[in-house]
Amino acid sequence: MTTAPRAGSLTEVRGLRVGHFTETRRPTGCTVILAANGAVAGVDVRGAAPGTRETELLAPTNAIEKVHALVLAGGSAFGLDAAGGVMRWLEERGIGVPVGPARVPIVPAAILFDLWIGDASVRPDAAAGYAACDAASDDAVAEGNVGAGAGASVGKLFGIERAMRGGLGSASITVDGITVAALVAVNAIGDVVDPATGQPIAGARSADGRRLQGTMRSMLRGELLAPLQAGGATTLGVVATDAVLTKAEATKLAQMAHDGFARSINPVHTMTDGDTIFALATGAAGRRANLTLIGAIGAEVMATAVVRAVRAATRLAGPGLPTLPCAGDFAAA
Predict the structure, then answer these.
(1) pTM for this predicted structure
(2) If 167 and its partner were Cys, which of 20, 103, 175, 309 is the partner (CB 3.0–4.6 Å)?
(3) Measured between alpha carbons, how far apart are the two ends of the chain, in Å?
């Protein structure tokens, strides 16, 4: 029996708004996290096939302290164009770092690979990023196959024909007046497992498609994997808090949050994943907090968000699309 995931949302962190753009022509899209007043940011990239923009400036030794938005997008490297639309939306509102005669919005981004779902020429662009900003609010984040999670899939080590639907999830916890929250687009090559039991809840299926294969169990038995496509997956996450953090502390928070991936995705951080986690600290709580506590909670909410993502996913089927069942199909069986 699996445990019920906690409720909550990234927007529980004061100072953040989230918006999705979901394509109607094929399953893909982008998700924007707006921090219009700026948020101290860090990042940690652990997958071997990342696609990112403006992540180097987040290193603690570099000058920029705060970002104004983050973008998670489908469409592989093409999807990085969505960040341009977010920059335009922010610039029109006078948001950015003053640089001479201009204000330059700081908008790091990361992408996942979903081009094998439908027409690969359809992917998020600048207009999609702009539309996601228009849709942004502080309401609870929509989950499942929306935004960056629209074309997500999991359990691809035995081929896409035996995979299942991934998606987008969020979760939050408030302790002693400090909120820590996560948002994640789950598009892993590996399985998603319930951290409470270690059992897969979505991932590679058996050859007849009727049961979960258990990727790690199969690998340990020496079963052959499908030929792997570099960059064919990637899980993207954001961990955020309203505590006051330095840039170095935000970087450490991003590192610790990867433990949430390791608890809920197996295998993770592979040669075909570009797994990336951003960290944001809005400082809206007006006080500092113990980073060990914040980081430990960050890993917890990230693991919960991963589980929520696949449980909120819906079955994919249609002309020109692979048939990918969802976790709910197996829970009901």
Answers:
(1) 0.95
(2) 309
(3) 13
CA torsion sign, 31 to 151 to 21 to 121?
A: positive
* 10-331 CATH choice from 1.20.210.10, 3.40.50.12780, 3.60.70.12, 3.20.20.190: 3.60.70.12
Could you tell me which of 295, 282, 292 has the C-alpha nearest to residue 41?
A: 282
Q: Read off the pLDDT of residues 111-151 as tens digits, 9 standing for 90 and up.
A: 999 999 999 999 999 999 999 999 999 999 999 999 999 99
The conformation of residue 66, written as its DSSP 8-state character, comes to E
Token pair belonging to 192: 């998603």
9: left (phi over 0), alpha (psi -120 to 50) or beta: beta
Give Cα separations from 30 to 128, 233, 288, 326 (angstroms).
7, 15, 32, 21
CA angle 315-26-205, nearest 5°?
A: 35
**Residue range 222-270, pLDDT digits in tens:** 887 777 666 689 999 999 999 999 999 999 999 999 999 999 999 999 9
Question: Which residue type sits at 197?
Answer: T
Mind giving me the DSSP string for 81-94? GHHHHHHHHHHHTT
Cβ-contact 31, 69 below 8 angstroms: no
- Provide the token pair at 250: 């935000």
Domain ranges of the chain: 10-331
* Single-letter amino acid code for the residue at 325: P
